[in-house]
Amino acid sequence: MDFSSLNQCLSTYRERVRAALDARLPAPTMEPRHLHEAMRYAVLNGGKRVRAVLVYAAGITLGAPLVRLDAPACAVEMIHAYSLVHDDLPAMDNDDLRRGQPTCHRAFDEATALLAGDALQALAYEVLVSEKAGLPENRCAEMVRTLASASGSLGMAGGQAIDLAAVGTPLSLQALENMHRHKTGALIRASVRLGALSGDAEDADRTEALDTYASAVGLAFQIRDDILDIEGDTATIGKKSGADIARNKPTYPAVIGIEAAKLKAQELHAAALRCLDTFGTEADPLRWLSEFIVNRPS
């Protein structure tokens, strides 16, 4: 697919994955209606869709047809949405605002939010294994393993556990990076990996380059989040600004200072771009996405 700008790329893939998600989520008229309404609210109620766009961009870079990328793009968005629903709960971060709207447990109730997250996680794997689009069985199995590993105790869930345990506790820079690479970076790496696995053939060197790229942009994404918690305003970032400071959570600005955090994000962006040196213009969307991640306003 030929793009001339980041905005065109984002718009095209965001619209595509939203339509794909709408088609795969249970209809709001289907029983149990309240649960299905909550699931749709959590997934379709805004969002940057960075993970889904990374699936598309990485897949296209390695020659995957778009139709083959819809299922993994939907799966990562469902996993991401479930994680946000659960992270926002009173037992976790106790947030009232997400994407500029009431969090799922505020719009519905805590029990429904829990069940919506559980159901979205299950649906993500159902979508991923039900739509193989001509891929060999071993490749499909690797995609399931990739998403499961990124979501579990050695990935996103583990990162959240580290984050909760670290509240009010000074962390070293190494420990902070480890937390971020699990909490946010793992699913971003999985998004790129799922796109690469959807390609017609795996090239080990090119796949490894994309994984290194994803590792860099995944950490950069969370550093930018940390910065926006200080510099962003609630209306722009869609959630309460200053929440991390109020909870005394460890962040890059808190550990190394905000200017050093900004420099670190730019260094990661440069490293991500170097990973794409052997690719041609087919990787331009990945290059644009790296810049978007480190400079995004929300």
User: Which architecture does the CATH hierarchy give at level 2?
Assistant: Orthogonal Bundle
Strand content: under 5%
Helix content range: over 70%
- Overall pLDDT, averaged? 92
The total count of strands amounts to: 2
Largest sheet: 2 strands, antiparallel
Question: For the CA atoms, what is the radius of gyration?
Answer: 18 Å
Number of domains: 1
* CATH topology name: Farnesyl Diphosphate Synthase
How many helices in DSSP terms? 15
Strand order of the largest sheet: 1-2
Q: Kindly report the name of the CATH homologous superfamily.
A: Farnesyl Diphosphate Synthase
Cα shape: globular
The class by helix and strand makeup works out as mainly alpha
- The CATH top-level class label: Mainly Alpha
Q: Topology as H/E string?
A: HHHHEEHHHHHHHHHHH
Low-confidence stretches: none
Oligomer: single chain
Question: Termini separation (Å)?
Answer: 27 Å
Explain this structure to me?
The chain has a single domain, classed as Farnesyl Diphosphate Synthase, CATH 1.10.600. The chain contains 15 helices and two strands. Helix 10 runs antiparallel to helix 14. Strands 1-2 form a two-stranded antiparallel ribbon. The mean pLDDT is 92. The two termini are 27 Å apart. With 298 residues, the chain is mostly helical.
Task: Output the keywords.
single chain; mainly alpha; Farnesyl Diphosphate Synthase; 71% helix; globular
What is the gist of this entry?
This protein has 15 helices and 2 strands.
